[in-house]
Design brief:
Length: 299
């Protein structure tokens, strides 16, 4: 609990790089955790359990934060909850049934580009030329990774890539909503509010998925539940608090640039798990890092 209060209480803007690196490590590991959880559970069950466990964890350590949320905040928190948490959780679970975890993490790197585009078109945010250049360079690196991955994994159903792309649009709205409408709430209050909204619909989804009626507790399902729990508490609960704080400390584009670093971690886990990787994919990762640097220099 003290750790979370320490996280959102930090004010030094230089700490944004610490947040960025920590989040890339946490979220880069989330893809392999989802992949492992899907061995014993369905995508619907993984998504619902992830939300429920996260909500319980956050309410236990930050229930009093709900008192800080004003009436005018709730509509934006609800929109944020659905676009930035609820739908992406299920979209990623379905996608990882058909594509490698490393490929899903690479596609997720479209988030900064979507953040820039929708931030300008919908939310009225402006950006500098170098910032746009950085995002486009990062996107070019992502495109290289996608093309190379498609050649290596030709047997996979790449229509499922669309689920990840849709989720990245949801994340883009999430970042811009927090920056424009929830800037006066601390990161923990935002996160607790979001998951307080989601706990009931997630429980209903889990109930109708047949989890309580048909799932047998054995070694496989127990392992899956452990993976989901780690994913929920660390990869969703703690990481979301950190990310919401990062948004407040920096720009929407810099915050979403964490998705450029995530593939580096996710690909490493993928290699350890037997997924294929090539030199071009490593080179593409370096291109992505250049894009992150340029996007940050525009601040």
């Amino acid at each position: 609990m003290r750790f979370l209060y320490f996280i959102y209480g930090m004010k030094n803007r230089k700490l944004r790089w610490i947040y960025l690196i920590a989040l890339s490590l946490i979220w880069g590991s989330s893809f392999i955790l989802m992949k492992k959880a899907l061995i014993g559970l369905t995508p619907i069950q993984v998504g619902a359990l992830r939300i429920i466990i996260t909500a319980v964890f956050l309410l236990l350590i930050g229930f009093n934060r709900l008192l800080k949320i004003e009436k005018r905040h709730w509509k934006y928190l609800t929109l944020n909850a659905m676009l930035g948490s609820f739908f992406p959780v299920f979209l990623f679970s379905f996608a990882l049934q058909k594509i490698d975890s490393s490929i899903a993490s690479i596609l997720n790197a479209l988030t900064p580009l979507n953040t820039l585009l929708f931030g300008a078109m919908v939310f009225g945010f402006t950006f500098k030329r170098r910032q746009l250049t950085g995002v486009l360079i990062g996107f070019a690196g992502t495109a290289m990774l996608i093309l190379e991955g498609a050649q290596i994994h030709m047997e996979q159903e790449y229509l499922y890539m669309g689920f990840v792309i849709i989720a990245s649009v949801g994340y883009a709205f999430n970042v811009n909503l927090i920056k424009k409408y929830l800037y006066d709430l601390d990161a923990l209050s935002i996160t607790v509010g979001i998951f307080a909204i989601l706990i009931v619909p997630a429980f209903l989804v889990l109930w109708f998925s047949g989890f309580f009626q048909s799932v047998e507790i054995n070694d496989v399902t127990t392992s899956s539940l452990v993976y989901v729990s780690i994913l929920a508490v660390v990869g969703t609960g703690i990481a979301t608090v950190m990310f919401n704080r990062l948004i407040q400390l920096s720009t929407p584009v810099f915050s979403s640039s964490v998705t450029y670093l995530i593939p580096v971690v996710a690909i490493t886990w993928g290699i350890l798990d037997g997924e294929k990787i090539s030199f071009l994919q490593f080179f593409s990762g370096l291109v992505i890092l250049v894009g992150v640097y340029l996007a940050n220099k525009a601040k």
